[in-house]
Amino acid sequence: MVDPDAHPTAHHTPIPVPVHWQDDVKAGLDQDVRLGVIEPVPIGTPVTWCHKMVVCPKKSGKPRRTVDLQPLNRHATRETHHTQSPFHQARKVPHHTKKTVFDAWNGYHSISLDERDQHLTTFITPWGRYRYLVAPQGYVSSGDGYSRRRNPSKDQVR
After folding, report:
1. How far is CA 156 from CA 104, 148, 149, 152, 153, in A?
2. Which of 64, 67, 102, 104 is most buried by its number of CB atoms within 10 A?
3. Is the overall model pTM greater than 0.90, yes or no?
4. Phi and psi dihedrals of 86, rounded to 5?
């Protein structure tokens, strides 16, 4: 859901990754390729949209890899889907029932992107260009799309 009249923004130079994080960052990229989250962009593929990969420290001091999708978000239409807060959902659980909590680790990664839209999520790194195969965190509509699929409203449940 991107404005068809939007002019693509493409960055052609990666942001350098500090030397002491390079092995960890590259290993994270390789792991996401193995998981089917991203793929290397084939050589010879024209550049349309190309975002910056940004690496910053976590509280632990380890690197956090993010992709700056702000240029794409400026031209995207949000797929608004309201979901009750976790507090209100938990309050609906009857007393004296067993409860459990699950972490939807990489939950957005369960939402595949249409092949025709994958080029919109291309990002550049010191190791080349990659693109998402699934909904990326940081894209304005990813959260709504995930919530709609994982927490359907009563009229969507059959």
Report:
1. 21, 9, 10, 6, 5
2. 67
3. no
4. -55, -35
Amino acid at 152: P
Give the mean model confidence (pLDDT) for residues 92-115.
76
pLDDT bin (cut points 50, 70, 90) of residue 8 is very high
pLDDT value, residue 158? 44
Helix (H) or strand (E) holding 30: helix 22-35
Question: Left (φ > 0), alpha (ψ -120 to 50) or beta: where does 96 sit?
Answer: left
**Cβ atoms < 10 Å from Cβ of 58:** 8
The string of pLDDT tens digits covering residues 135-147 is 888 777 666 665 6
Residue located via tokens 């960055």? 11
Burial class of residue 79, CB neighbours in 10 A (0-12, 13-18, 19+): middle
Query: Between vectors from CA 97 to CA 91 and to CA 102, what angle results, nearest 5°?
Result: 70
Query: Do the beta carbons of residue 109 and residue 33 sit within 8 Å?
Result: no
- Give the count of alpha carbons within 13 A of 2, CB side only: 24
β-partners of residue 125 are 128
26-55 per-position pLDDT tens digit: 999 999 999 999 999 999 999 999 999 999
Q: Which residue has the tokens 């291309």?
A: 122
